C-alpha cells in the first residue's frame, strides 16, 4: 500500500507496482489523477489592436487543466491608479477577447483566469498598456480652384493633405462663409470621398469663401486655409448654334424651316433668332427676318424663285450678341408639294363610343393633307343636327355633342377631300337612354355629411341650380333618375369635392367653322352671325364693324344676346355691308375677340354721268344696266302745243317716274332702275289737228325676277319634288340655271341643295324624316342671282303611314266585337293621328267606317247576333291614310266563354313612404270573373289604409299614406267557369330602413370592444348604404359617433378607457335616410379573465458557487388566459431586498441564476404573468448556500463481520465541497 497525504497536483501521474518472488515477476501500473483547479494560463497575455477605447487580448490555455476540461475564462481589468479589479467578462469560452468601453489616456492592466469544475486558476497578468490611438488626425488639404460658377452653385476642388495621420482618409468636410456673414456653415451632409464638390443653394450676387477639412479614423483634421472670395452669378456669353435646322415645307415661292434651341444659351435668355438665305451659286447672304429677330422656332421665307436652290442658316442672339450659325444640310429649293388627305383614327374610336344619355361626346381626329383638305361630317349619310358642333384646326377636326339623347345614336362619317384625293372614316356612337321622367339632385357636406335632397320638385331638365349653399364650404353632388313608374336609378358618380365660391372662367366662344373663312352673301339677303358664348361671370358682348361698335337695335342691324348665345342680324345686305365684323367677349377673366370677314355680292354702282336718250323714233330700243338712271328725251312740235301723255304698256308708271314737258320737248326720268322698269313706254301727242304716238322699248339688264307658280309635290318620308315656272322677267339675259335651297323651320339660314339646276323641277332627297322645311328657288343669269320664290307654309317631310300590324280578336259577344292591332312598322315620318276601323257584312261589297280611335284597340258595337262580319284597320296621319290591314278570318257575333286574362304593365311597384299608391289590374273574362286578393299568402282585408275596388274590366288596390306595413307580395286571383288566373304583384315602400337586429358583443379587451349585428329585416326598398355606430360612457348622456361610414355588419371600437362602462347603438342608412337604432346594454372595457394564481414553490435543482438552477411548476389557476411567462426574484439571507433575476419574460419553468457569491445563502420566489397582468408570488424557497457540492466517498469495503455488525472502510471524497467537517451516512438493505 502506498498512501499520499495532502495530495497536490504534482502527485498525479503513472505509478508501477513491481512484485517479485521465486516464481517470477509481476508488474501493475496505476494512473493517479489529482483533481484540482487548472494551472495558470500560458503566457504571455498579448494586447493588440489598441485604440483610444478598445483593445484585443489573447493567451494560451493552461498546460494542466486540473483533471477537468476548462469550461471558460474570467477576464478582469484594473487601472494602474487603482487597486480594485473589475470583471470584464466571466464567461469567455475562447482564447481571445475584445475589450471595449475603455477610457482614452488611461493605463490598464488585464488578467485572465481559467475555470473548470473544481475552481479558478491563478491569474495571468498582462503588461501595462495606455489606451490611445496608434494614429493622429490628418493634415489640412489645399484648395486648388473654384470653378463652374453660376448664380446658385460653384464647384470646389482641393488636393489631399500631405499626411493622412497614419490612417486612411475616410472623407472631407466642406464649409462656406458669406462675405457679409461671420459664421462658417457646412456644405455637405454626407461625407465626400472625392476631391471635388458642387456647392449649391448659394444666394445670387453674394461672395463666398471656402475651406476643407480631412477626416480619418482619429477624427477631423485641421481645415485648409480659406479660399479667395468668389461671387455667385451666371457668366454670360454669346449663345451656341441652334440645333437640328431643317426644312419642314415648301411651296413654289416659299420655304418653311424649323430649328431647336441652342444647347447653351450663354447664360442669358435667348432674345430671338435670325434667318439668312443666299442663292446656292452666290455668297451674298440676305437677312430674311427683322433685325430684332424671331421669337419662335420656325419661319417661312417668302418671295423665292421656283426651283432655285438656296442655302439657309440660322443663329440665335441674346444680350451679349449674335451666336454661332447653324445651316441646313445641303440646299433647299421652293417647289409645290401635294399630299393626299390622311387621317388617323384611334383604335378606341374604331370600336365605337358608348355614352349615357345626358353625357357628352367628343370625337377628335387628327389629319394631314396638302393642300389643306375640305372637311365634311355627316350622320348616317345625312346632315348633322343643330346641336352638333364642328371644330376645325390646322391639323385636326373635332365633333362635339353635349346633352346626348337617343336621337344622337348613329354612324358619324368624316370625309376629307383635296385635289390629291379623298379619304373617309366613320365612328359609331351609341347613346344609352331610358324613358326618364325626372331627376333628383342630392348633395353632401364634406367631409362627413350625409346625402340630402337638393331638389324638392321633380327636375325635368338635365341641369339644376342648387341654392342655399354656404360660401367656401365643400360639397359633392350626385343625380338620381326616375321613370314614369316611380322607379329610381342608382345614383350617378359624385362630382367630387366642389367648393362653393364664385368661379372665374375666361370668355370662350363656339362658332361655325365657316366663319374662319370669308362669308359670301348675296345682296338683298339677310346676314345672320351667331355664336355660343361661355364664361364666368357671364361676359359682356359687343359687336363691331370696321372698328366701330354696332348699336344694339337699328332698322338695319339687330343684336340679340342671351346668357349663352349672341346673334347679329343684318337685314337686306348691300355693298355697304362689306367689311370686317368683330365679336368681343370680356369679363374679369379676360377678353376674347373673334374677327369675321363678310363679302356682299351686289351689282356695281351707277355710272357717274346721267344717261341721256335722244332721237327717239317709233321703233327705238333702249338697253341699260340696273341701278342707272333712265332718261327718255323727245322733241315735240305742233300748233297748237300738243298735250303730252306717257304710258307704260304693261302697267302704270311707278311713283319714281318723273315727267318734264315744255313746248319743244318732253323728258321721262327714272332713277335707280331695276328689272321691273323694263317694258314698252308709249308717248302720245294730241292737239286739234290730230294725234301722234311713238314708243320706246326699255330693257333693263338685271338679275331675273322670282320664278312663278312654285309648288311642292310628291312628298315622301325623306324627299320632296319642287316644281316652278320661269320668271316673268329674265333680266335681259338668258337664264342659265337655278339655285335650290332649303331651311329647317327652327333655323334662320338657308343652305344650298344645288347651285346648278337647269330644269324647272328638282328632287331633294336625304331629308330628315319628319323634319319641317322651307324651300326656295332663285334664277341666275349673267347679271347675277335673281329674286327668290319661297314656300309660304312649312313643308313636313312625311308620307302616309304603313298599314297597321297584326290584327287580333280580343273579345266577341252576341252584339259586339273587340279588336286589337299593332302599330305600323313605319309612321311615314309623321305621327299617326288615329285609326279607322271598317266593317263589311257578309254578302256586301261595301266597307263602312264603324269607329275611329287613337289607341290600338277598339270595340265595334251594335252588331246583329249570329251574323258574319269582316274587319280591317287603316292608320291615318296628316299626310293621308295607309293601306288597310284586314283581320284574317270573318267573325261571327255570339257569346263565348273566356278564361280570365290579366294585362299587367309591371309586376313590382314602388312608392315613397307617406305617398299614395294605386295599382289597377285590367282583366277580361266571360262570364265576369270573381276577384280575390291575398297578401303574403293570407286573405287581404280592407282597412283604413288599404281599399279594393273592382269594376267590370279592372280591379284596383289603393294604399293611403304607404308605410312599411304595406310591403309584401300581393296575389290577385280571377276565377270563372272557364278557368282561374293568378298573378303576384310586389309592393315596395321606399323608406328609411328598419333597425339592425341581433346586436352582440364578440370580443372585449381593456381598450377595445368588437360588435356585430345583422342587417335590418326591412331595408327600405333599396340597398343599405352604410351603418352609423355611436357610443356613450354610461356616466354621461352624450352620444359620440364612432364611425358614420361602416360598410360591414361588424366594427372594432378602439381607444376605450380601461374599466369604463360603455353603451353602443347602431343605425342603418340607405338613400332615404337614417333608420331607428338598436342599442346594447352596458359593457365594461376590461379583459374577461383574471390574474393568474401563484406558481408552485420554487426548487433549487442544482447549486454551485457560481450559479444555481431553479425550477417550479405552473400555477393551478391561469386566470382564464394562458400564462405568457414568469418573473423570478432572489433575496440574500441577510438582506430585505428582493432582486429580479430576469430581464425578459421567462417562457419555461426553470431558470439558471448566475452572479452568486460563494458561501452566501439565497432564497427564491416566482410570479406568473398572463394577458391580464402579473399574479401573486409563490411561496419562498428554502435557503440554499452557493457552494460546489462535494464528490461521493470511495467505494466501501467490509473489514469485519459479526452476527450483529459489519465494519466498513472507505476513502474520503476527492472534493469536499469546501467544508472542513465531513459527515457520512451509511445505508443498508436487508435480504431475507
Supply the CATH architecture of the largest domain. Answer: Sandwich
Query: CATH homologous superfamily of the largest domain - what is it?
Result: Immunoglobulins
**What oligomeric assembly is this protein in?**
single chain
Q: How large is the share of residues in beta strands?
A: over 45%
CATH class of the largest domain: Mainly Beta
Counting helices, strands and paired strands, the structural category is mainly beta
**Low-confidence stretches at least 5 residues in length (pLDDT < 50)?**
607-619
CATH topology label of the largest domain:
Immunoglobulin-like
Number of strands: 98
Q: What's the shape?
A: flat
Give average pLDDT, whole number.
Answer: 86
Termini gap:
37 Å
Pfam family, one: I-set
Domain Fibronectin type-III: 41-134, 140-235, 241-337, 410-504, 706-800, 803-896, 995-1088, 1094-1188, 1192-1232
GO molecular function, one term: structural constituent of muscle
Keywords: Immunoglobulin domain, Repeat
What does this protein look like?
This protein has about 1250 residues and is an all-beta fold. The chain folds into 10 domains: about 1-135, Immunoglobulins (Immunoglobulin-like, Sandwich), CATH 2.60.40.10; about 140-230, Sandwich (Immunoglobulin-like), CATH 2.60.40.10; about 245-325, Immunoglobulin-like (Sandwich); about 350-430, Immunoglobulin-like (Sandwich); about 435-500, Immunoglobulin-like, CATH 2.60.40.10; about 505-600, Immunoglobulin-like, CATH 2.60.40.10; about 710-795, Immunoglobulins (Immunoglobulin-like), CATH 2.60.40.10; about 805-895, Sandwich (Immunoglobulin-like), CATH 2.60.40.10; and more. Helix content is about 0%, strand content about 50%. The protein is built from 1 helix and 98 strands. Strands 5, 6, 8, 9, 10 and 11 form a 6-stranded antiparallel beta sheet that branches. Strands 65, 66, 68, 69, 70 and 71 form a 6-stranded antiparallel beta sheet that branches. Strands 14, 15, 17, 18 and 19 form a 5-stranded antiparallel beta sheet that branches. A hairpin with a 3-residue loop joins β89 and β90. The longest helix is centred in the N-terminal third of the chain and has 5 residues, at about 345-350. Mean pLDDT is about 85; it is low at about 605-620.
